[in-house]
Amino acid sequence: MTCSPARTRCTSPVRTAPPEGPLAERGFGYRPFELGLARFEAILRVILADYCGEGTSWTEVGTLIDLVDKWNVGLGGGTVTDAVWGLDGAVCIGAQPRIFPYSDIKCDTKAKPPMCGTAAQTQTTYNNSGVVWSRTP
């Protein structure tokens, strides 16, 4: 992982992992051979907090997240919305993302996803456009 001197942005190459690898050991349980490549890439974006889908991580190692997904792999939990995710990045970002405030998150090649809104609006966004809903404990 490479970070800017002010530690405001970090970039990380996307890597896949075997079922016994670090992703499985941390309890995520997402397996590329069961989900398919597009869905697994989406999960990697969630884990890396790649909100814009551009390969930039907006999190740090050890940050806790809880996941709900449309594939019944995530265990749920969490109380504060991090983001609702589509296959290409975040559909919306919560008012309190994992590490960096919403105002600090920048997208280089496309518009930054909007804030998620109320709990009811976020639920509707997940139901209609999301595949994963990440939350912080």
Helix-strand makeup class = alpha+beta
Radius of gyration, taken over Cα atoms and rounded to an integer in Å: 14 Å
What is the arithmetic mean of pLDDT?
82
- Which band does the percent of strand residues land in? 15-25%
> Portion of residues in helices?
10-25%
Largest sheet: 4 strands, antiparallel
N-to-C order of helices and strands: EEHHHEEEEHE
Order of strands across the widest beta sheet? Answer: 4-7-5-6
Number of strands: 7
Number of domains: 1
Number of helices: 4
Shape: globular
Low-pLDDT segments: 1-27
Straight-line N-to-C gap:
24 Å
Provide structural commentary.
This protein is of the alpha+beta class and 137 residues long. The protein has one domain. The chain has four helices and seven strands; from the N terminus they run ββαααββββαβ. The strands form two sheets. Strands 4-7-5-6 form a four-stranded antiparallel β-sheet. A three-stranded antiparallel β-sheet has the order 1-2-3, with no helix packed on it. A hairpin with a 2-residue loop joins strand 5 (80-86) and strand 6. The radius of gyration is 14 Å and the shape is globular. The two termini are 24 Å apart. The model is unreliable at 1-27 (pLDDT under 50).
Defining traits:
3-stranded antiparallel sheet; 7 strands; 20% strand
